[in-house]
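tool_call predict_complex ligand=FE2/S2 (inorganic) cluster
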Amino acid sequence: MSHPYYTDDKEDKLITEEAVREGENIFLPKPARILQVQPMARTEKQFRLAFTDGTSIAHQPGQIVEASLFGFGEIPLGIASSPTREGYFDLVIRKAGRVSTALWNLNEGDTMYIRGPLGTGFPVEEFKGHNVLIVAGGIGLCPTRSMIEYIEDRREEFGRFVLFFGARSPKDQLFLDDLARWRDGSEWIEYHETVDQGSPDWKGNVGVITTLFAQTSISEDYRVIICGPPIMYKFVIKELQKLAVPDSHIYVDLERRMKCGVGKCGHCQINGLYVCTDGPVFNYARIKNLEEAF
Ligand SMILES: Cc1cc2nc3c(=O)[nH]c(=O)nc-3n(C[C@H](O)[C@H](O)[C@H](O)COP(=O)(O)OP(=O)(O)OC[C@H]3O[C@@H](n4cnc5c(N)ncnc54)[C@H](O)[C@@H]3O)c2cc1C
Ligand code: FES
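tool_result ok
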């Protein structure tokens, strides 16, 4: 697919064409059993799932699924665990409206219906051998956790690894067990966190996520992933540009309203680009001039 602002060196490949060739029905969800439910923050829960037919989801870090419940509908969700962790996959669901609330109310042993993995993932191979910075805001920690766990499990394949995480308040932080481990001063990760608004018992940084750049040193050779609320991208990219990180080293994970997830309905279009099949992970150099992307 050619596009005036977006060109990809790789042969363009819609997930639809690939799946149709393999005879797979891309519209048919597969049942997945809920192995574990863990409440996380006020409106988020972590669901650990496995397909009932015993197959693996076989995803790349950064890919998404469409999760559904009959009679309610279907919503896109990022996969929050790494493919290196076998036998299950994690999803985090924020209670937002009709469909997400119906899924959020499910319990251990219940069944959820899944299509995917869908879309593009993070460029894992391209990142190998390089220093990596991940900047995650709010629920943006969920899809990036798949990459964080991947780096943890394949640590020798990457250089220095720095993670910035920003949440609205301490009560909005996600993956509390993971955060405790990351804060521990583990050698595999350099973790920095902030909240927009502190609380009486919060001893950490208070301020927007870009304030974390002052706590460490990031050089132009870093490969960077950014995932968070739309307002965050512009300011984080400005900081990276001050540090001379080339636009082509920056990857953004974009969220748009999605329906089909496979390039058919057009709901997710940004000026002719389909977030569901061309993304949700995009190289910043390739979409920076795309109107409406940021
Ligand atoms: C690529 C991608 C990855 C996502 N990953 C996750 C995830 O890992 N975990 C998670 O909880 N949610 C994720 N979302 C958002 C999730 O899909 C929406 O919250 C969900 O579609 C809301 O549907 P609903 O029927 O429950 O609510 P609706 O009734 O449709 O909407 C309820 C509220 O949520 C808002 N909303 C609806 N869709 C979106 C959206 N796409 N983005 C932001 N706000 C929205 C509406 O404006 C409204 O305020 C992701 C979305 C995309 C596109
Ligand atoms: S969600 Fe239907 S085309 Fe992208």
